[in-house]
Amino acid sequence: MKILAIDTSSSVCSTALLEDNNLIDEISLDDGRTHSENLMPLVKELLERNNINLSEINLIAVSCGPGSFTGIRIGISSVKAMAEVYNIPVAEVTSLETLAAKDVSEKNKITLIDAKNNQVYAGIFDKGYNLLEEYMADDINIIFEKIVRYSNSICIGNGAELHKCILEKIEGISFLENNSQSAFCTGKIGYKKYLENNLKNADTIMPIYLRKSQAERMKK
Fold first, then answer.
1. How far apart (Å, rounded) are the C-alpha atoms in residues 136 and 8?
2. Could you tell me which residues come within 8 angstroms of residue 29 by beta carbon, excluding any fewer than 6 positions away?
3. Order of strands, edge to edge, in the sheet holding 13-19?
4. Cα–Cα distance measured from residue 113 to residue 66, given in angstroms and rounded to the nearest whole number
5. End-to-end alpha carbon distance in the chain
6. What share of the chain is helix, strand, coil (3-state, %, to 5)?
7. Cβ–Cβ contacts within 10 Å for residue 184, how many?
């Protein structure tokens, strides 16, 4: 099974090509340009240098958030177009799942994404990347009270980097050094969802924001 994976939920625009759970190739950019400028040229380059046509793709895995509101919308709208034209099923992956897939240890994974103003998005996963608690979006101090019982876990994500001084109070906690988003990890979770028959189509994939945008909060 050939999988095209896309992650535009952070400042990194990342695309990857997988055969089942194995990486064929990956291209990522964080050059200051918008994802609307980078995404489709990256997809084109990825497919061309591996001599694969979009019509040969069996599954598209896309990170649907939480994260950058604009980046998420660009990624999903692009995937919707490709999936509609070529009738490709879609695996809807959260960016918190993508981060969890960066670690292959037997530990539980606590993934945290910076949501600005001392807020974080958080997810807790077991070694098989299965969600142990509902996703959270709150002040880091409130999140800490909910995750402190998960001792001997590994913290992943830019939210973990930013709030390390708080999180290191958890017993036996460790931290991943590379916290950047990776489409390869999006693809790995996408393949897992394929095996679980947990797929969407072009009409049913939706962004996962967990909270309203800053503009919506200010308007309210």
1. 20
2. 12, 13, 14, 38, 42
3. 22-29, 13-19, 2-7, 59-63, 90-93
4. 8
5. 46
6. 35, 25, 40
7. 25
Place of tokens 């807790």: 124
Instruction: Please give the C-alpha separations between residue 188 and each of 63, 93, 167, in angstroms, as whole numbers.
Output: 11, 10, 27
Per-residue three-class SS string for 101-161: CCCCCCCCEEEEEECCCCEEEEEEECCCCCECCCCEEEEHHHHHHHHCCCCCCEEECHHHH
Check if the beta carbon of residue 194 is closer than 8 Å to that of residue 106.
no
The residue with tokens 């800490």 is 144
The CA-based angle 75-63-5, given to 5 degrees, is 80
pLDDT tens string, the chain, 220 residues long: the values are 999 999 999 999 999 999 999 999 999 998 777 898 899 999 999 999 999 999 999 999 999 999 999 999 999 999 999 999 999 999 999 999 999 999 999 999 999 999 999 999 999 999 999 999 999 999 999 999 999 999 999 999 999 999 999 999 999 999 999 998 999 999 999 999 999 999 999 999 999 999 754 444 334 4
State how far the Cα of 210 lies from the Cα of 220, in Å rounded to an integer. 17
* Cα-based torsion angle of the residue sequence 83, 87, 93, 99 in order, rounded to the nearest 10 degrees: -70
Q: Which residue has the tokens 């001084």?
A: 165
N residues, the chain: 220
**Positive/negative CA dihedral, 90, 49, 102, 73:** negative
